[in-house]
Amino acid sequence: MNNAVETIIFDLGGVLIDWNPRYVYRKIFKTEEEVEWFLENVTTSEWNENQDAGYPLHKATEELIATHPEWKAEISAYYGRWLEMLGDAIHETVQILNGLKQTGKYKLYALTNWSAETFPHALERFEFFKLFDGIVVSGQEKMRKPSAEFYQRLLDKFNITASKTLFIDDNLRNVQAAEAIGIKSIVFKSPSRLRVDLRALNIMFE
Fold first, then answer.
1. I want to staple 135 with a disulfide (CB 3.0 to 4.6 A). Which of 14, 33, 48, 110 is the partner?
2. Which H or E run contains 2?
């Protein structure tokens, strides 16, 4: 059992927190087709990830408006109404996190792609953050998943051994990047599936 899991790292958005820009754009556009087109062609996930890596929100917004002036109001809503994108905690996953904490067997961390400017809102809102032994935020570190350097930052900061660590993320790209540096990983599909996947690794909890 030399490589038994001692540390578990959670992603936040999509795993423990329901965050979705569609919550705002469904109020702005009339159809799902319009919402999806806008998110795929204007305020893209790649654009948002640049801010997750530390780029200032106001600069990103101004630059995108300069490129798409016809969508000024809609682009401004992305960060102007960001709090409306922040849904509830995914309570079933929080229950798993709490169960792991109560065993006393594991160190628990969060590794998240999140803007340093918006993260304080989440920190204030979600009580379960207190369950973590540490949180590493991309916007604060000026790097993000799937960069190997970002994962290594967490390992180094908290003196974590990769081979004794499990990483949970809903993005396959991020999971593959973690596995590439020797971290066991699970692609998050649902809380019920996560329970099954954890028990398959002999990680037991109530």
1. 110
2. none
What's the predicted TM-score (pTM) here?
0.94
Relative orientation angle of helices 57-67 and 45-52, to the nearest 10 degrees: 150
**Domains identified in the chain, total number:** 2
- Residue 194 and residue 99 in contact, taking contact as beta carbons nearer than 8 Å: no
Residue 1 has pLDDT above 70, yes or no: no
9 phi and psi angles, rounded to 5 deg: -110, 125
First to last CA, the chain: 22
* Cα–Cα distance for residue pair 14/10, rounded to 1 Å: 10
User: Is 11 in the same domain as 98?
Assistant: yes
Tell me which of 162 and 204 has the higher pLDDT: 162
- 2 located within any domain: no
79 lies in the same domain as 46: yes
> 154-180 pLDDT, tens per residue?
999 999 999 999 999 999 999 999 999
